[in-house]
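Operator note (shift B, R.M.): manual run for Acetyl-coenzyme A transporter 1 requested after the automated queue skipped it. Running by hand, logging everything below so the morning shift can see what happened. Input copied straight from the record, untouched. If output looks odd, do not overwrite the archive copy; leave it for review.
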Amino acid sequence: MELSESITHKNGRQRKPVVSNPDMGERESKLQVEGDEEALLPNSDKADGQTKASRGIKGELGNVALLLFLYVLQGIPLGLAGSIPLIMQSKNVSYKDQAYFSFVFWPFSLKLLWAPLVDSLYLRQFGRRKSWLVPTQYLLGLFMLYLSVTVDGMLQADGQKGPDVITLTAVFFMLAFLAATQDIAVDGWALTMLSRENVGYASTCNSVGQTAGYFLGNVLFLALESADFCNKYLRFEPQERGIVTLSDFLFFWGIVFMVSTTLVAVLKKENNKQHLNKKKPREETQSVMETYKLLLSIIKMPTVFTFCALLLTAKIGFSAADAVTGLKLVEAGVPKEQLALLAVPMVPLQILLPLVISKYTAGPRPLDVFYKAFPFRLLIGLEYALLVWWTPSVRQEEGFPVYYYAVVLLSYAVHQVALYSMYVACMAFHAKVSDPVIGGTYMTLLNTVTNLGGNWPSTLALWLVDPLTFKECQGAPGQTCGSVEEAGLCVREGGTCVTTLDGYYVESVVCVLIGLCWWIFFGKRIKRLQEESPSAWHCRVAK
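Run finished. Output pasted below as returned.
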């Protein structure tokens, strides 16, 4: 099921919809500030000083493999970041702590803020893209090596002291920030690394590489880290620990980052032909400022401003289901590695759904599909709440029966249909209305707003679970469970804190009601935006 937006995109994670955080998630169109013209340069078919073969992709398999590998590296820290909430949930952290950690998934949605800098500021002698790629990957490797030594202490829960959530959030936020910066650099490099006839393979490398990297850092890691999974499927004699630990995994990939980055820095030459016309630093700075002014002018347009406001509020109704459900299942005893593995059979569905749905969004009114799928996704949120409520009653001593996982898988699959219907419709509308003169910047702005519209409700939903939850102390008269300290005192007095009202269920109902109101009052408004003339979407300052 959709454990979080970041898991399928992460994605944010959120990744951006568990192999993505819609939540690697909703995938963004790439900002191409000064990038579109790179793909059209007359000398862009040359790399490493040699003419690229024009006989198809065979002559560029090395470049395609390098791009694919760079995107895989990018997915590793995102996958690891997506696994930490599940690990923390098994250590009984509060949902307020989970809300803090959810900020880790914001950088990929905010990278538009510094993408113009990455595109415009660089060292000519070293290469436009390598100037950012090499240092960011070195820093990623160093952060991973640092975490390999310290992460166990950060996650350690001794007595009343739980995991060091603030430090974990800060470190993994930096990992996500660096991965987002690396993504900007790799996206730009792909435009000149591949010839014009093969540049379309860049998006394939992006999609496949990020998904594979997220799978390695999330699904594979959680499976190999689980003692139960390893003892059941991979070992002849049971042991207390999994095959790998988080420290081992971080150390291995830290070394991979350091070694591979060194090889790229030394052996891979960047195409510098486009720099024969050298620009002055002042002109480059002006380019950055002009890009930010352009973004501001786009947002000020009435139709764009209205559309952005709708995008920022549309996903409030889905926030409890997307952000909290997976954590509640782990809290109910479902093994985190089993939840992660449910993503595997979903991969073919996630590949086929956009192809099928695009047939219905290719016309002049793609947001009609968005409007029709909206209430179904709200209903799935209620079904998720019922699933969480049903979970403890089917738990057995040896775990959960097969039919339970079949129900979870079916719920996840139905949710994916609704999610991708809305996502593909939204992306189709973005492509339809974006001003072709500034298409890259325009598309990325709309996709950034779309992702932010999923991030902030998810963070808020996690934050509100604890305040909306009510517990009472049974077995110790006069004691309460209103706080961590009071709960500890209740236990010391011989009592037990029992949940009388779970805030998750309150949130689920409230979110669906808010979403239903949004659909009734604003759903038709978003459909009417399709009736606006093309000139209403074109930026007046574009030339």
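Quick read of the result: The chain has two domains: 60-271, 286-542. The first helix runs from residue 61 to 89.
Leaving this for review. - R.M.
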